[in-house]
Amino acid sequence: MQAIQVISLTLLSVLAANAQVLVAGKCPKPAVKENFDASQYLGKWYEIEKLPTVFQKGQCSTATYSLKSPGVVGVLNRELLANGTINAIVGSAKAKDPSEPAKLEVSFFENSPPGPYWVLSTDYTGHTLVFGCSEYGPVHAEFAWILSREPTMPGETLFELRDILASAGVKVNKLTATNQDLAFCSAMEQ
Ligand SMILES: *[C@@H]1O[C@H](CO)[C@@H](O)[C@H](O)[C@H]1NC(C)=O
Asked: Which residues of the chain have pLDDT under 50?
C-alpha cells in the first residue's frame, strides 16, 4: 500500500512536471545497431524529433559527442530556451557491457543514476535513432530521439525511423518535432 502510494506520488509529480511519455508494463527491448562503432558516431547531431522529456524544454537542440578516454564518450547537449538563453549540459556515455556497444548509458550529474541510450539505427553520416527506457514499478518512461547530421532530415528517412520505433511498440504518436530553422536557431552558432 505504502509503496504504491510512493509510486503514485512520484508519477503524479513526473506528470505534473509534464509530458513524460509513461506507459503501462515493462520496457520494450528493441534490437540495436549491430557492431556499433562509437568512433564514427562522434561529432555534432541535430535533434529532428523526440519524445517529450521533463529535462529538455528548448528548441534548436544539438548533441555533440567526443572521445573522452578509451570507451568513454563525452556528451554536450545544447538547446535554445524560450527566453533566448542557451542551455548547455555535459555528460558522459559508455557501454555497460563492451559486447553490446550500442547499449550506452549516459550520466549527466555525478551520483545521479545513468540513463539508457540505445542506438537502434545509424549510418553515422546521416541519421541516428536513439531509444531509452526506465521502469518505475508498474509503468515505464519511454525516451526517443531522431537526430541528423544536418538541421533537416529527408522525409523518407524520418518515416523509416518512426517505423522502427512503432514496430518496437514505442508511442510514436507522441513524437514532437524540434525547431531547427536556421534563422530561429542563429543564436546557437557560437
Ligand atoms: C531563462 O530561463 C532559464 C530556465 O527557465 C533560467 O534559468 C534563466 O535564468 C533565464 N534567463 C534569463 C536571461 O531570463
From this structure: 1, 16-17
Domains and CATH numbers, the chain: 2-189 (2.40.128.20)
Give the integer Cα–Cα distance in Å for 7 and 1.
10
**CA of residue 55 to ligand 1 center, whole Å:** 14
- pLDDT at position 164 is 98
Instruction: Return the best residue to mutate from 56, 80, 81, 87 for the ligand 1 pocket (most ligand atoms within 8 A of CB).
Output: 81
Mutate which of 79, 83, 86, 87 to test ligand 1's pocket (most atoms within 8 Å of Cβ)? Answer: 83
CA 30 to chain centre: 15
Q: Distance between CA atoms of 95 and 154, rounded to whole angstroms?
A: 30
As given in the structure block, the three cell numbers for residue 96 are 555497460
Residue 125 to residue 160: CA distance in whole angstroms: 16
Could you give the C-alpha distances from 160 to 51, 74, 76, 153, in angstroms and in order? 16, 28, 27, 11
The predicted model scores a pTM of: 0.89
Contacts of 161 (CB under 8 A, 6+ apart): 121, 127, 129, 146
